[in-house]
Design goal:
The structure holds two protein chains of two kinds.
Chain A (H helix, E strand, L loop, with lengths): L1 H15 L7 H35 L10 H9 L22 H11 L10 H32 L18 H17 L8 H43 L7 H25 L5
Chain B lengths: L1 H12 L3 H17 L10 H11 L6 E7 L5 H17 L3 E6 L4 H16 L8 E6 L4 H14 L26 E6 L5 H12 L3 E5 L4 H9 L6 E3 H11 L5 H4 L1 H31 L1
Parallel strand pairs in B: 1-2, 1-4, 2-3, 4-5, 5-6
Helix pairs in contact in B: 1-11, 2-11, 3-9, 4-5, 4-9, 6-7
Classes of the chains: A mainly alpha, B alpha/beta.
Chain lengths: 275, 282
């Protein structure tokens, strides 16, 4: 627990130290992050999908037959007993050999590391791209096109609504949505030059887009500040005596070392070059 | 006098960016030590999430999806905690899935804190952690069509068939409500596109601030019932359920930091206009 706190504090302050300038602390934290993330994701993918859902369907425990050729092959892999336990994989699946196809495509994707066989990776990628494109086309058409058109089709002057409201529905806000939607769409119509009356309307569309970008920027700032608050809350928590004042000690050591390095750099640059 | 003020503003405009980092850091840090207790009022979007959860009958089946990791924990975790607290207070059955691998850790943390320690609930009867499955939107599509094909075991390795609360739960339509705690792709948008819209199961969401503009059109059109927008959204929800937590404690710092940033933007713009005018003059 205490060691974990010290590591957490060190990594947080090491990343923050980049605000001063690029330095070895930052480099260490950056490399550790990349390495651990890769290892963690790989193991998660393997143990939550490949082992139970792929191997578990190819060699399920429910249909284990040690005399069959298929399970004799499985028993050869049994040297990796944590992945291929004796008696088949008991993850609740029935045998489904169609899963040999994604298994083969996955192996083909891994062949991209070989210069001679890298062409095979294209098959796996082609399948993934095709599948994703098909899935997404339906999702976007249904939710983003039809759903949004349906959402924008409302009664403009509804007597049940107030004329004006800062938040929530109102007749004024309905007009704002109408004008914003039409002029925003007009701005993205490029088959006609944006001049004259058409140009004026597209300019209104630009203003609506600007407001949207401004809101995005505001939200982005809010998000970053929230993350900073989260790190500060942890640093404050770890600065207590329960964690042997981890934050204070590491901060002090980092400041001393970075200050010393800056001083040495300054001294080295101030010295005249030797003849 | 005026000349001195202009020179002062110009000198602030040229200040080393590291001083700005320091000021922002202090603006965030000091309110954490000395809270101001600024008032928190729920927005319409947050109120809609609260109302949607309140409208659920007791023992409804609620699918909560964790799509965030340590990097976005300060924004999303408080709202995940608040939503779980609200659901368990109302005696709902909670089914947790994760579209992000690190979401599983976050879910374990939240369930241990709320379901086990605070409410003393029974795993498998009141809540279940189905865990992470890779595949992004394909996972959502899999849950929509046949959850059991995708999840034969839960995150603890127990066969799903042996979990009591999984009886008669086979696909998304068997749930009464979906809540996505999302920090990006895959997340809220995928749940809307592949689960909520095609099946008609109502859903709400809590997202990072950056995502709010992308998700808001779905909220405006009624495809999503409200949104918890970043840390302020979490704080507002905590206020609604009457249980102040991590979100609330960070709001003073959030407000002060925003004020300081606005001041910097104003100074930056004044400096820009003064310099532009000077450049034109000479």
């Amino acid at each position: 627990m205490v060691i974990g706190a010290w590591i957490s504090v060190f990594l947080t302050l090491a990343i923050f130290s980049y605000l001063y300038k690029d330095n070895p602390f930052y480099k260490v934290a950056e490399h550790v992050f990349v390495g651990i993330s890769t290892g963690y994701w790989t193991s998660m993918f393997f143990w939550t999908q490949i082992q139970p859902n792929l191997f578990g369907r190819l060699w399920p425990a429910t249909e284990y037959d040690a005399s069959s050729l298929w399970y004799k092959l499985y028993n050869v892999f049994g040297v990796f007993s944590s992945v291929f336990p004796g008696g088949g994989i008991a993850k609740g699946h029935d045998m489904d050999l169609i899963y040999l196809v994604p298994f083969a495509l996955g192996i083909m994707m891994l062949l991209s590391v070989s210069s001679k066989l890298s062409w095979m990776a294209r098959w796996g990628i082609a399948y993934t791209v095709g599948m994703a494109a098909g899935l997404r086309a339906y999702g976007f058409l249904n939710s983003n096109v039809l759903g949004q058109i349906k959402g924008s089709a409302f009664q403009l002057v509804n007597s049940n609504l107030p004329y004006f409201a800062l938040v929530g529905e109102s007749i004024f806000n309905n007009f704002v949505i109408l004008i914003g939607t039409i002029t925003g769409l007009m701005y993205f119509y490029f088959s006609r030059e944006h001049t004259g009356n058409f140009g004026k309307l597209t300019k209104v569309g630009i203003y609506f887009l600007m407001v949207s970008f401004g809101a995005s920027f505001g939200f982005a700032v809010m998000g970053r500040i929230s993350l900073l608050i989260g790190r500060f809350v942890d640093l404050i928590y770890y600065s207590s005596s329960d964690f042997n004042y981890a934050t204070l000690w590491i901060l002090l050591i980092m400041i001393i070392l970075l200050g010393y390095a800056a001083f040495m750099d300054k001294s080295a640059s101030a010295e005249p070059p030797s003849q | 006098m005026m000349k001195n003020i202009i020179e002062l503003i110009l000198s602030i405009g040229k200040v080393d960016r590291r001083w700005i980092f320091l000021v922002i850091g202090l603006a965030v840090l000091l309110p954490l030590f000395f809270p101001l207790g600024l008032p928190i009022r729920a927005t319409n979007a947050t109120q809609r999430v609260y109302d949607a959860v309140e409208e659920l009958a007791p023992n409804s089946k609620v699918l909560v999806s964790f799509e965030y990791g340590p990097s976005t924990k300060p924004e999303i975790h408080p709202m995940a905690i608040a939503i779980l607290r609200h659901l368990f207070t109302n005696n709902q059955k909670v089914y947790v899935t994760c579209l992000w691998p690190d979401g599983q850790f976050m879910a374990e943390d939240a369930l241990t804190e709320i379901a086990e320690q605070e409410f003393g609930l029974t795993y498998g009867e009141d809540y279940v952690l189905l865990g992470f499955r890779p595949g992004n939107e394909a996972v959502v599509k899999g849950i929509v069509s046949n959850l059991r094909k995708l999840y034969t075991t839960d995150a603890r390795g127990t066969l799903v068939d042996q979990i009591p609360m999984m009886t008669n739960v086979n696909k998304v339509k068997d749930f009464d409500f979906i809540f996505s705690a999302s920090a990006g792709y895959p997340g809220t948008i995928e749940w809307v596109q592949y689960a909520a819209d095609p099946t008609g199961v109502p859903m709400s969401t809590g997202t990072t601030s950056i995502q709010v503009n992308d998700v808001m059109p779905y909220v405006q059109s009624g495809q999503v019932k409200g949104i918890l927008a970043g840390m302020p959204g979490a704080a507002e929800y905590e206020a609604l359920i009457g249980s102040p937590g991590i979100g609330t404690s960070g709001m003073d710092a959030q407000s002060i930091a925003h004020l300081v940033i606005v001041i910097f933007i104003v100074f930056g713009n004044i400096t820009y206009f003064i310099e532009t005018r000077r450049a034109k003059k000479y």
